[in-house]
């Protein structure tokens, strides 16, 4: 009585697993092919140093090579957190204001296709 | 001794043996599904390295599954269903603990820097666990509809 239902469930499990896992498989494959698939470059454009404000204007460029988009991309630079809604293939540039003169990227967080979360933090 | 009594005894022993064997098969099947196959699917799909399990712990878990399997097949079907559900839910709990509840963290060396990496694969795990629960419910219903002796 339940055999057809069980078979259809197995089929739907396999289909769903394939659909959910495919972005991760493609992402991993492309990263293994090209380890420099994701590159973050922070360049200072202007320094602001007066009596009230001490900050720097910087340009962040993110190069990404995979066809799988990265959602909720967050960069931790010094004390600041810079959020990009989506990073797709190619270069994405953003001009930001940083509270400190530190250009070093201390952490990266993103979600592969909005599903799998990755957090990388330099110690 | 009455021959019908001997036949009755033999039938009883055969039935007990049949129940024990079906219980052992049941326990091994549950062990394979929850401790071996489900974690393996998750590890393969997420490219995680498999956490080695202490062989003694593996034997304990297998023994636990076998015991519950044998109890489930030896008692009356409607009571057996309860043990089957307990077996499945504990199996899912083991699966969750093996795959560390959907988060995998490690420290790697990247370009000379020590980097802490955390990988979150909860959505994938939810699909696997969700369908696991569906199968448990389906098995329970199939036993209620067609109870065995």
Overview of this protein structure:
The complex is a heterodimer of chains A (123) and B (149). In chain A, 25% of the residues lie in helices and 51% in strands. Chain A is an alpha+beta fold. In chain A, the strands form two sheets. In chain A, strands 4-3-6-7 form a four-stranded antiparallel β-sheet. Chain A has a three-stranded antiparallel β-sheet with strand order 1-2-5, with no helix packed on it. Chain A is elongated, with a radius of gyration of 20 Å. The mean pLDDT of chain A is 83. Chain B is elongated, with a radius of gyration of 21 Å. Chain B starts with a helix and ends with a helix. At the A-B interface, helix 1 and strand 7 of A face helix 1, strand 2 and helix 4 of B.
Using brief descriptors, characterize the structure shown:
heterodimer, A: 123 residues, alpha+beta, Immunoglobulin-like, 4-stranded antiparallel beta sheet, 3-stranded antiparallel beta sheet, 25% helix, elongated, B: 149 residues, mainly alpha, 11% strand
- Quote the distance from N terminus to C terminus of chain B: 28 Å
* Share of residues in strands of chain B: 5-15%
* 3D shape of chain A: elongated
The averaged pLDDT of chain B comes out at 79
* Class computed from helices, strands and strand pairing of chain A: alpha+beta
What's the CATH topology name of chain A? Answer: Immunoglobulin-like
Q: How many strands, which pairing sense, and closed or not: the largest β-sheet of chain B?
A: 2 strands, antiparallel
How many domains of chain A? 1
The global form of chain B is elongated
Residues in helix, % of chain A: 25-40%
Helix run count of chain B:
4
Indicate the proportion of strand residues of chain A: over 45%
